[in-house]
Amino acid sequence: MSRNPDLFARTLSCLRDPDPAAKASQTRALRAAWLNGELEFGGRAPEPLTEPGRPARPALVSPFEVERRSLATLEGRAALVHALAHIEFNAINLALDAVHRFRGLPRVYYDDWLKVAAEEAHHFELLRDHLRSLGYDYGDFPAHNGLWEMAMKTAGDVLARMALVPRVLEARGLDASPALMAKFRGAGDARMVGILEIILRDEIGHVAIGNRWYLHLCKQRGLDPLATFARLIEEYDAPRIRPPFHVEARRAAGFSDAEIEYLEDCATRRAD
Predict the structure, then answer these.
(1) What count of other Cβ atoms lies within 10 Å of the Cβ of residue 83?
(2) Is 70 helix (H, G, I), strand (E, B) or coil?
(3) For a Cys staple, 38 with which of 33, 70, 151, 217, CB 3.0–4.6 Å?
(4) Which stretches does DSSP call E strand in 65-205?
């Protein structure tokens, strides 16, 4: 029997773990235990959590203080790999928080977000291994905390979380993938291109999960999905929606033509 037989207790333990390697491995073990039927599906109220466990490094700074470096240098390439590893580390916490914080949802909701958490852990491990092969490690460059800040903004409503984390923040990762692959391909880093291909494949699935639960919750509450999305973006001061959009990936992740048209219109209006 598991030492922590309750799903939510085990999830909280992973969330609070400050060691990146342990968090990643324990998150994958958490999903395996859930799939094997080793965890109880309790319904107790979540314990308050405002900050997940994280290591002392990297130093967290404003996004405007994160230095941009050229991929023409090894340090510059490592810095970009580090930035991506930091996103994936935060994404582990975001997926775990979606499990721990929001109760009373169908069991398949927890199946979905544990799958996301385990895949984000795998992405982090791939990126950290590659970073080490370049002579650096996670924590060697400063980073920002924007992803977790949005998690806290949306902590009070699962609908807002589904609308703004997978459908805005993670979907931006889909949009950025072609340019990132081109940069690393140009730098001669074939291994990194391969890692990005794995991440893009999985992230399409993660955004699709966010879309599925967003639409489910809108239907449950009798809300129009497009109008509600537009309202939540303004209400929660979500990051700017910027082109270019990876339309093929967004469609594969469940964005409708009307939603893509809305995003393109938003980007045009803000540019004007």
Answers:
(1) 18
(2) coil
(3) 33
(4) none
